[in-house]
Amino acid sequence: MSREIDEIFRRAKEGRPLFVNRDALSPDFVPPRLPFRDPQTRAVAQTLAPILRGAKPSNLLLYGKTGTGKTAVTNYVLERLKTEANNPSLVLAYVNTRLADGEYRTLADFARFLDLSKGKQIPLTGLAIGEVVDRIFENIRTNKKKVVLVLDEIDYLVKLFGDDILYAFTRSGNKLAPGFLAIVGISNDLKFKEGLDPRVLSSMSEEELVFPPYTVDELREILKERAGAAFRPSVASAAAINLCAAMAGSEHGDARRAIDLLRIAGEVAEREGLGEIDEACIKQASAKMEVDRVDEAIRSLPVQTKAILYAVSRFDGGTNTGELYLAYSTLCKRLGIETLTQRRLSGILGDLDLLGLVEASVVSKGRRGRTKKIQLLISKDTLTKTLSEDVAFEAAT
């Protein structure tokens, strides 16, 4: 083993690096140009432009599948807006609700952008949600701040924790004057609004924008630009870029996946001491991404969602909502965690379906109505292995 490690290190030292700017293929990179998203970029900019006159813009909801440019377009416009405004009272806040994983953390992450005074700062835990909201509102009102809050994966927050925060934010107008709070919601779920309370819907006053998936040809051009910034010349050939675009385009038109595929293929080629990315590197990268995607998706789930996923895995050949809820309730007692309502469970199943971890399809039973057929789409062994890393599931696995 020591010889193998020495050989790995030797190749790393002696091999010629393939990357000149690895960040150009990172998920957080905002390129100087966003190909094939001019209409969406223009629409977001037009919606937020009233801020430059000191006026509150409309709330905005952006829809589209993963990797269609929603977050990239939003961050691109916000960066330009901040430069153009050059106004210390303007606050542009971004919170990914899936990463925040809860109402309290979402509010705490938001509060960090507001620079709350000492004594009014939000601790990691310990305050009531209402108190956190009050402190945020007081800061905006007292300092006359003009705030744009981007809630990425807003559907995740609402499905798991309800829409109380949205209700408070969308009804906050008079409480914040002369400041204001505008919301930009980013969602992978086109049906996101169907689960909102009618009072939230009536006060959102939002504009909506749908981002279509990229075509294979569009992905090819995007990868070509990113490869030119990330690699030395001739590392990513036209054939390699075409294959990455075709593999990503054949699935969901996901630019994020296509870019990740190219980056990992470059890392594989560099590790093997190759001078360019070949087909074998791309296929190896694709296999690694699939394994990593499932593992990471499971690890990042909240405990309640993991419990529901584990309950689904107990049924060979699938199950229905009623049977699943019974199994989930029993599991919650074993784990010593709260049992969610059946409605909340159904919402989480939709999220798991979106992630590709389960299939939750509606099946007609004739005169007896309809039911939901639920089955696991990933390996039970993979699920059990990943959940065993979570101390909360020691009693289950």
What's the level 1 CATH class of the largest domain?
A: Alpha Beta
The CATH architecture designation of the largest domain is 3-Layer(aba) Sandwich
Number of helices: 18
> Could you report the average pLDDT, rounded to the nearest whole number?
87
Radius of gyration: 23 Å
Structural class based on helices, strands and sheet pairing: alpha/beta
N to C succession of SSEs? HHEHEHHHEHHHEHEHHHHHHHEEH
Give the neighbour order of strands across the main sheet.
2-3-4-1-5
Judging from the principal axes of the Cα atoms, what is the shape?
globular
CATH homologous superfamily descriptor of the largest domain? P-loop containing nucleotide triphosphate hydrolases
User: Which range best describes the helical content: under 10%, 10-25%, 25-40%, 40-55%, 55-70% or over 70%?
Assistant: 40-55%
Question: Major sheet, described briefly?
Answer: 5 strands, parallel
CATH topology of the largest domain: Rossmann fold
Distance between the termini: 32 Å
Kindly state the number of beta strands: 7
Total domain count: 3
Low-confidence stretches: none
Beta strand % = 5-15%
